Amino acid sequence: MEKNIIRIVKLIIGLFVYAVGVVMTINANLGLSPWDVFHQGLSGVINITLGQASIAVAFLITVLDIVLGQPIGWATIVNMLSIGTFMDILMINNLIPTANGLFTGLLMILLGLIVQGYGCWLYVNVGLGVGPRDGLMVILTKRTGKTVRFNKSVIELGAVIIGYLLGGSIGIGTVVMAFLGGPIFQLVFKTVNFNVEEVNHRFIQEDIRFLKEKLKSKEAN
Fold first, then answer.
1. Which residues contact 77 (CB under 8 A, 6 or more apart)?
2. Comparing C-alpha atoms, which of 76, 84, 206 is closest to residue 133?
3. Number of other CB atoms surrounding residue 206 within 10 Å
4. pLDDT tens digit string along 185-218?
5. End-to-end CA distance of the chain
6. Count of CB atoms situated within 10 Å of the CB of 47
7. Among 156-165, 173-182, 193-202, whose mean pLDDT is lowest?
8. pLDDT at 221
């Protein structure tokens, strides 16, 4: 029980840290990340907050993950609900400063990506599944036989195009994040000696199977 509590606390902290990094890149005012271009465009069209748009998109992608056969974990559900909520709390209360120049904006983007990297390490390391968007990338890689980089690029390019058509903001920051996001995450993971492929995730399907076996065992007795 104590181990599970520690994992949950670490998960929540990691997702909050990740949200802080996301808001830092938004407040850099140099263009949004590929997914946030989509979130902003959607939020403007249906008149909801950026965080609520993030939750809505994450929900739809989670459903798509399940349909395509990608196992999801409890962290996937918590990720779907909490990052957007944390983003709204941070942005509505102006808890993250806003950049007002090119240099400070680029600095905020770089720091924001580093913060996201550490947040990702914290929540993925608990072994309760990955985020909806990462899950989509994984299952498409399995289904198409294409590389992770190819599928990630196609997904994010699609998000940028749709988001821009809906009114989302793009700029130099969008390009910087698209090219530097992966390398910075990799560098962050090296600083904590973290290998994503070594994490053994526990998925919701396993818990359901475990409960069914327990029920069968009780009925048999």
1. 62, 204
2. 76
3. 12
4. 889 999 999 888 788 888 888 888 878 888 887 7
5. 26
6. 7
7. 193-202
8. 67
Sort 5 into a burial class: Cβ within 10 Å, 0-12 / 13-18 / 19+.
exposed
Q: How many Cβ atoms are within 10 Å of 167's Cβ, its own excluded?
A: 13
Quote the strand ranges of 33-169, DSSP E.
none
pLDDT for residue 208: 84
Largest Cα separation within the chain, whole Å, is: 70
Residues whose CB falls within 8 Å of the CB of residue 198, separated by 6 or more in sequence, listed in order: none
The ranges assigned to domains in the chain are: 2-220
Span 78-96, mean pLDDT?
96
Q: Taking Cα atoms as reference points, which of 19, 187, 163, 176 lies closest to residue 109? A: 176
Whole-angstrom distance, CA of residue 98 vs CA of residue 65: 35
Compute the distance between CA of residue 38 and CA of residue 114 in angstroms, rounded to an integer: 22
Q: How high is the pLDDT of residue 173? A: 95
What is the spatial distance between Cα 26 and Cα 92, in angstroms, rounded to a whole number?
13
* Cα–Cα distance, 56 to 27 (Å, whole number): 21
Tokens for 174?
Answer: 């969008």
- Tokens encoding 150: 């190819």
Encode 48-73: b = buried (16+ Cβ within 10 Å), e = exposed: bbbbbbbbbbbeebbeebbeeebbbb
